[in-house]
Amino acid sequence: MKHLKTLFIPLYISLAFTGLLLAGWKIADTSSSLFAAMALAAIAALPIGFFLSLYLTPRARTDSQLKPLQTASVLLTIPVAIYPDWTIAFAAAAINISGYLYIYWYSQLMRPRPDVISVGETLPWFELTDADGNKVTSLQLANKPSLMIFYRGNWCPLCMAQIKEVAKAYQQLESMGIRVAMISSQPANHTKVLSEKFKVDFDWLIDNNNQAAQTLGLVDEGGTPAVFLLQGHRADTAMPTVVMTDATGKVIFADLTDNYRVRPEPETFIAIFQQHLDAGKAA
């Protein structure tokens, strides 16, 4: 069932474009209701505009329920109901239903709470590789305070915006002695592109076949939209996750968001690390 997510975004966008074309045809047809056709055009433009905005104006997080989009869609449905045209009404209903599926099903990760990631506990052993194929184990990441971010891949605009935020805070994290590891199951060539783009001394790591994500209970089955499978990405990816460990490898913070559009800000990481470092000095 979860693998249906791989197909959902392409189908949702295709449906919106179909609705836009139908609205244009109805607007040109003088026998149709102009108001209803224009409302359908606006309803179809909402998801198209939203997804375009994620790429054109990168942001790492959104309102979990996308209330502005929901409100606009409901208001735009009124002219469709007042001036009934079954073709327009059916298209508007299909787009609206898809929008609710996106917000309340697709965006929800429905993740179980992994017992292996608990504050005060040491993470289980797992193995990664860097972009050159060298092995990196969880033990190697645990020799200093670490910030580990599991991201979905270069194709995810919210992930890219989150990495950009953390990159901007790099100097502050480095001055605190924090190692930053960016972890994804995407192919090594995509990770190399990312490391060259940001030019910060992060550990850019690859989770081959999602083995580490499996160990930690972070796999999102079918989380990669089908269109990106053509670029070599795997259908399954990791749920966006932040794990912070101290110099002994024990977890001091974990963000296990259940909505891929809701993520913590870098200020949160820095404040928690600073609090932990201050507590260590006081002891």
Automatic annotation (TrEMBL):
Keywords: Membrane, Transmembrane, Transmembrane helix. The chain crosses the membrane at residues 7-28, 34-54, 88-105. The keyword Lipid metabolism does not apply. Residues 117-278 form the Thioredoxin domain. It holds the Pfam family AhpC-TSA. GO terms for molecular function: antioxidant activity; oxidoreductase activity. PANTHER family: PROTEIN DIPZ, THIOL:DISULFIDE INTERCHANGE PROTEIN DSBE. This is Thioredoxin domain-containing protein.
